[in-house]
Amino acid sequence: MNVLVTGGCGFIGSNLVKYLRRQRPDWKVVNLDKLTYAGNLETLADLEGDSQHVFVRGDVGNRELVEFVLRQHRIDAVMHLAAESHVDRSILGPEVFIQTNVLGTQQLLEASKAAGIKRFLMVSTDEVYGSLGPTGYFTETSPIQPSSPYSSSKASSDLVALAYHHTFGMDVVVTRCSNNYGRYQFPEKLIPLMTVNALHDRPLPVYGDGQNVRDWLHVEDHCQALLLALEKGRAGEVYNIGGGAERRNIEIVRGILQLTGKPETLIKYVQDRPGHDRRYAIDPAKIREELGWTPAHTFEQGLEDTVRWYVDNRTWWERVMSGAYRQYFETQYKARLAA
Ligand code: NAD
Ligand code: DAU
To answer: Where are the beta strands (DSSP E) in 64-130?
Structure first.
């Protein structure tokens, strides 16, 4: 089996490429990635010399290139993860989110249709459902009500992928997962950002009252669910994937301070994110009952392992945070603390 993973140099994509190489050693994994600020080849250094992993630098929106790659490597299935993924950046500049997430996905679907791909797995997000109140869960039939430019671009691409199934008969499966955490996550998302700030003894900027809730999913559990959805999911279906670990942001920040041995005086409440979704929580009954998936990691152990990994892998995050990204980060960080 030959699989194209898009975005395989990002956080989830790199974990997925490695997971596939371990779990399906006879598969060829072709990794198409544009290497934006969020994609780093260094993350895949341990795959150097692995002839079953092929890296291609390119844009999912480049239909000619994608079609060439699909045919050249006789790709059977596509796992589509490439995206602009950070909500705060989508608020500062939505255009590239529409370009990559919406138009890029449509070009990739078109190339996949032309090349006769047997299965297209679209990795979407629980953010397409918008925000929950204090109770209830997202199911696959919850209304699509995205709030941010990021989540609306993901909702669009998710629905376009489903439209290619309904209209053109393409074999498409959509997954919508909750907040991932684990090694190799870019230090702009909550857990790695707070860990890195704590290690630098810098203030930890908590948005609003810190009471927003996310449902945390270990990236390895997510990879396992994606492989199951690829192999056993039913065409045209959506599967929600959640970690069953709802936590308030402030609890997580306190946990990170404890794990790094830093004082709570580093916590700084800052201006809220515009349009900030209050709570996400997934009902994973469908994927559990149909595909037999349940998460293996507990959040407390997973968080401890993740924080330890950042402590032990300073070189990785210092490198990925250098250059143009550092400039962006410093400007945003200072603006947030000053607001
Ligand atoms: P990430 O930002 O860490 O990585 C994205 C990768 O896509 C990078 O390697 C980047 O170089 C690549 N990329 C960006 N634009 C591209 C383009 N035009 N062509 C080719 N490659 C391009 O993202 P992530 O957190 O690993 O998320 C992966 C996918 O999972 C995304 O589709 C995201 O929406 C979805 N998702 C993420 C989470 C999460 O908690 N991180 C949760 C739900 C869904
Ligand atoms: O739910 C799935 C989504 O999870 C994915 O689709 C996105 O790609 C991924 O980035 C993530 O989105 P969030 O906006 O939930 O993740 P983020 O890590 O940016 O923020 C998590 C929570 O922490 C959110 O309530 C905002 C808050 N936060 C975040 C940052 C970066 C802070 O309080 N301070 C911060 O500095």
So the answer is: 77-80, 119-125
Domain edges within the chain: 2-179+218-241
Fold of the domain spanning 2-179+218-241: Rossmann fold (3.40.50)
pLDDT tens-digit map of 129-154:
999 999 999 999 999 999 999 999 99
| Nearest partner of 35 among 63, 7, 62, 61, judged by Cα | 7
* Bridge pairing between strands 238-241 and 172-177: parallel
The catalytically annotated residue of 59, 67, 84, 126 is 126
Per-residue model confidence (pLDDT) at position 220: 98
Q: What is the rounded average pLDDT for all residues in the chain?
A: 96
Residue of minimum CA distance from atom 7 in ligand 2: 85
> Which DSSP symbol is given to 297?
-
Its pTM stands at 0.98
Q: Which residues does 306 contact at the CB level (< 8 Å), separation at least 6?
A: 181, 182, 183, 191, 192, 195
Query: Would you call 150 a catalytic residue per the annotation?
Result: yes
Q: Which ligand is nearest to the CA of 215?
A: 2
Angle between helices 190-199 and 249-260 (to 10 degrees): 40
Q: How far apart are CA 298 and CA 216, in angstroms?
A: 10
The reply to whether 318 belongs to the active site is: no
Find the 60 Cα to ligand 2 centroid distance in Å: 24
Place of tokens 């870019």: 186
Looking at residue 324, what is its pLDDT? 66
Give the tokens for residue 307.
């924080």
Q: Whose CA is nearest to atom 8 of ligand 2?
A: 85
